[in-house]
Amino acid sequence: MNQQIENNFKYHAPKDGQPERYQAIREKAKELAYLIDELCPNSREKSLAMTNLEQTVFWANAGIARNE
Predict the structure, then answer these.
(1) Sign of the CA dihedral 14, 9, 2, 57?
(2) Alpha carbon of 60 to those of 22, 24, 38, 40, 44: distances in Å?
(3) Considering just the CA atoms, what is the radius of gyration of the chain in Å?
(4) Tens place of pLDDT for every residue, the chain, 68 residues?
């Protein structure tokens, strides 16, 4: 049995303080998303920036959920 695979593919119920940390990460990313939307012309690059920002939030929150 591979412990990392088991951990990565199971449900991680939020622990005390985690939902607030998830929200803080999402709020900061949303600020950046609005800045990108305002300053960058509509383009493939802008779309990729937004997609990667979403991925950043996902992985940051997964890092909290999976490792605490």
Answers:
(1) negative
(2) 8, 11, 24, 24, 24
(3) 15
(4) 999 999 999 999 999 999 999 999 999 999 999 999 999 999 999 999 999 999 999 999 999 999 99
Q: Which helix (H) or strand (E) holds 59?
A: helix 44-67
Q: Are 18 and 46 in contact (CB under 8 A)?
A: no
Cβ-Cβ contacts under 8 Å for 53 (sequence gap 6 or more): 29, 32, 33, 36
Q: What is the DSSP letter of 10?
A: S
pTM, two decimal places: 0.90
